[in-house]
Amino acid sequence: MRTLVFALGLWCTTLAAAVAADFRLSSPDIAPGGTIANKFVYKGFGCSGENISPALSWSGAPAGTKSFALLVHDADAPTGGGGWWHWVVYNIPASATKFAQGAGTADGAGLPAGSAQGRTDFGSPGWGGPCPPVGHGKHHYRFTLYALKVARLDVADGATAALIGYMVNDNSIATAKLLGLYGR
Prior knowledge:
six-stranded mixed sheet, disordered N terminus
C-alpha cells in the first residue's frame, strides 16, 4: 500500500510539472531576463519613461482554468521587505490569451472585458513601470500569470495588492512567469 501511495504521489508531481511546463507567458517587448526598455518605465519619481504597459501573451493554460490574474512585483524595492506592486489585474476571462501593448491604463479600457485592476504601490490601478532608486542596481520585475479555478475573485473595489494576491494564490492551479530587469 505504501508503494502505491508513493507511486501515486510521484505521478501527481510529474503531471503537475508537465502542466506547469506547458503554461507559458511571453512578451514581444521584454525578452526573458532582458532589460525593460524606457518606453515601459514609470513617468515620475525622477524617472522619465512613457509608462506604457508591455504586450503580453500566454498559452497552454491547464484544464479547469476559469480565469486568470496577472501580478507584477519588484521584490528588490527597498520598502522594508514588502517589495513593490507594479500591476495587479484579476478576473481576466479564461478565453483571453493576450494584452496589447498599452492595455494597462488606469481605466482598464484596453484589457479583456470583465478584467479588473487593483491598486499598485503607486496608489492607483493600472501599469506602473519600473523606477528603482538611482544606484540601487538592477531590479527584478516578476510578471506572474496565474490560472485560477474560479471565474471571479470576490474582492472589493480598492482592495490592496496583498489581499488580491492572497485570493489569487488561494485559487491558483498553475503559474507562468516572465522576468524583466531594470536599473538606473
